[in-house]
Write a structure and sequence with these properties.
By secondary structure, the chain is mostly helical. It folds into three domains: 1-76 and 302-325, no CATH class; 77-161, no CATH class; 185-282. Helices cover 67% and strands 0% of the residues. It is globular. The protein starts with 8 loop residues before the first helix and ends with a helix.
Length: 331
């Protein structure tokens, strides 16, 4: 769909795909030792050069590799798809903003930030002297996040919780990404909607569940904090979902509206079902010839899932977590 010059990209991305985790890999890793997990990660590494045995360093390398892969896309995508990737990279800067706030709440130093680009304004060095939310607010003064911070920081300080700061950041990012997606060609826009937006909205449904049934927020408060950005449900359908009187009713309404294909009974089962649905959707694009934007999106989404699994395995093996518990965490 991008023209003949992009057909050569297919083998490149498919080569990346060969380094993703397979079911048989997971079966082996759950029962493997910590050193065996590290060796498997090294063997599966493509862009990641992993020479260290330090778990924290390995985790940081794995996380930054996702950003590197997106940057690689800028080497062979042009025009609106490239612009979309630049907007997509902003999510990792937002994760950095969340990390800094969490560090201020816990009193622990920031030990990792995604490296967005060489001369980015948000780096480990640039925030090393930020030790309070007043200093953090001043640091953000000339950025697009200052107004959000002004509103959110007093509540963070009062409640000792970054929840509403993170939601506000996600809302702004969702609007930016949706606006960027509207400029794509129809096939690319469809891929973004079916893959990336679906995975992001799955996360938002999990936020809603927590806000209603764990934080005890009202329907009105939840709508305010988590607006219906992606609109997979009508405005009324969204409101009815939030009005669910119990977790069971919440999941039943998601099932009735086709968001989930089978009934679940708890948040853990819901997360697994949504992750399985995301993986299933990537399969639609993996056979595309010539190159499709959806192939690239599929890889980044699957790679991000792998990084999460690797980190759970590393931390679990180091802590001696029981295999049965580890399997539940790896949903």
């Amino acid at each position: 769909m991008f023209g003949i010059e992009f057909t050569a990209v297919n083998p490149k991305v498919r080569n990346w795909m060969s380094f993703l985790l397979k079911p048989e890999d997971m079966e082996y890793l759950v029962g493997a030792s910590l050193n065996e997990v590290i060796e498997t990660i090294r063997a599966k590494a493509k862009k990641e050069s992993i020479e260290t045995g330090d778990i924290r360093e390995i985790e940081q390398i794995l996380k930054n590799a996702i950003v590197q892969y997106i940057h690689s896309g800028l080497n062979f995508l042009v025009g609106k798809p490239a612009d979309f990737l630049q907007t997509w990279l902003e999510v990792y800067r937002i994760e950095n903003l969340k990390t800094i706030a969490r560090a201020l709440i816990t009193g622990k130093p920031v030990d990792f930030l995604y490296k967005i680009k060489d001369k980015d304004w948000l780096t480990m060095d640039s925030v090393k002297d930020v030790r309070s939310f007043d200093e953090y607010l001043e640091f953000l003064r000339r950025t697009d996040y200052y107004t959000i911070a002004q509103k959110a920081f007093p509540r963070i300080v009062e409640e000792k919780n970054t929840f509403f700061w993170e939601i506000a950041l996600d809302n702004q990012y969702a609007h930016l990404l949706k606006k960027a997606a509207q400029k794509l060609s129809r096939p690319s826009r469809d891929a973004v909607k079916r893959l990336l937006f679906f995975s992001m909205e799955a996360s938002r449904f999990q936020w809603i569940f927590r806000m209603r049934f764990q934080y005890g927020l009202s329907v009105e408060e939840t709508i305010t904090f988590i607006p219906n950005v992606y609109k997979s449900l009508s405005k009324r359908g969204y409101a009815e979902l939030l009005e669910s009187e119990s977790p069971a009713a919440f999941f039943e309404k998601l099932h009735q509206r086709g968001i989930i294909e089978e009934m679940v009974t708890d948040a853990s089962s819901f997360e697994k079902l949504m992750n399985d649905a995301i993986v299933k959707r990537t399969h639609r694009y993996l056979g595309g010839i010539p190159f499709q934007f959806g192939i690239f999106l599929s890889f980044i989404i699957l790679k991000s899932m792998d990084v999460r699994k690797y980190i759970i395995l590393l931390e679990g093996k180091r802590a001696g977590v029981d295999r049965a518990i580890l399997e539940k965490l790896l949903i």
